[in-house]
Design brief:
Helix content is 12%, strand content 39%. By secondary structure, it is mainly beta. The strands form 3 sheets. A 7-stranded antiparallel β-sheet has the order 2-1-5-8-9-4-3. Strands 11-10-12 form a 3-stranded antiparallel β-sheet, with no helix packed on it. The protein has a two-stranded antiparallel ribbon with strand order 6-7. Strand 10 and strand 11 form a beta hairpin.
Length: 205
């Protein structure tokens, strides 16, 4: 079985934001879509390890900022490569505004945002699916939405193709982090983007 077949599925990329009390947070997700038009509902799937997940479970509200092809890699690093449990992602961050529900949406490298209220949750194991009614939405630019394939080809920096110092190594296919060693531990977690060993590929000279 070739797990890379999953990469052929089409995905958008989004900054999911939430607010609980005085705490703001956000993370990158790639699973969001409209599920009904009357009434207007969307669904998102969020990894349970994400702090944003817990905030939405408690608050019942969120915003989705749709990333465009003008998004830069720093946006993915900022919202995807650090945890809101240990970092305030909005401290000093200027490329955002609050929508009518009081939650931030991202204003740079995005083409629209949607504000929603959770109606139903479905436990999917590693993720929770949130079915939500649309409360508000605005178009921010006419730039095309960024797909996961576009991110891989045009936004994510290209890592070196060879292992450092001529050694065997393993490279994270998500962020490009390189682990040196003949074997990658099965329980290894990328220290940069927190993805598991299954998202690493062997790099040889």
């Amino acid at each position: 079985m070739n797990k890379k077949a999953m990469y052929q599925l089409t995905y958008g990329l989004f900054v999911l934001t939430a607010r609980l009390g005085e705490k703001d947070n956000g993370c990158i997700i790639n699973t969001a879509g409209q599920v009904t038009s009357t009434p207007n509902r969307i669904s998102i799937a969020v990894n349970k390890d994400n702090f944003t997940h817990d905030m939405i479970m408690e608050s019942g509200r969120f915003n989705i900022s749709i990333l465009s092809e003008k998004a830069n890699f720093e946006t993915f690093q900022h919202f995807g490569f650090q945890s809101g449990r240990t970092a305030d992602k909005f401290d000093g961050y200027q490329a955002c505004k609050r929508s009518g529900n009081g939650i931030y949406y991202i204003t740079e490298g995005t083409n629209a945002y949607i504000s929603a209220s959770v109606e139903q949750t479905i436990d999917l194991g590693s993720h929770t699916m949130f079915i939500a009614s649309v409360d508000d939405m605005e178009v921010l630019s006419s730039e095309p939405s960024a797909s996961y394939a576009y991110y891989q080809a045009s936004i994510k920096p290209k890592p070196e193709q060879k292992a450092p110092s001529g050694k065997t190594a393993w490279r994270c296919t998500v962020c490009g982090y390189v682990y040196e060693g003949d074997e990658l531990p099965s329980d290894f977690i990328c220290p940069i983007c927190k993805h598991p060993a299954s998202d690493f590929e062997k790099v040889t000279v």
